[in-house]
Amino acid sequence: MSKPVVALLLAAFALPVLAQSPAIKKVPARYTSPASGSEMYLAYCASCHGPKGLGDGPVAQHLKTAVPDLTMLAAQNKGVFPKDHVAKVIRGEVGTQTHGLKDMPVWGPFFLSLNNSQEPVVRIRVANLTGHIESLQAK
User: Fold this and answer.
1) CB-based contacts of 24: which residues, under 8 Å, 6+ apart?
2) Which tops the pLDDT comparison, 120 or 73?
3) CATH value at residue 46
4) What CA–CA distance (Å, rounded) separates 10 from 85?
5) What's the average model confidence in pLDDT over 85-103?
6) Which residue in 15, 58, 59, 123 has the fewest CB atoms around it within 10 Å?
7) 55, 104 in Cβ contact below 8 A?
């Protein structure tokens, strides 16, 4: 890949995280289809978690807290993907070391703002994003 293409990809992945930082001018994250878990993941999660969920996104090295490897969630839960817990983390209903801190946005309120506060659409977004994260699990 050429350097300009790599720089463009890094910028695209970093925007959602940078948009949440109070020290940086806020830039709204782009709209994605609620039906596409993979599109949402790439737009909102991959900048930190990496495109394959390994915790190696381009922004990860600049954060104070290590970014978790999402591919190991099932393995860390006796082989069962913790679907409900992941959905609650995405929505900001349960805390983790990173979600909800200044370094990591909570996506529930953001998803509400994208969809004019339509809770059914937010549930679809969270379910599809959770499903995509489940598809990333190490086999």
Assistant:
1) 18
2) 73
3) 1.10.760
4) 29
5) 71
6) 123
7) no
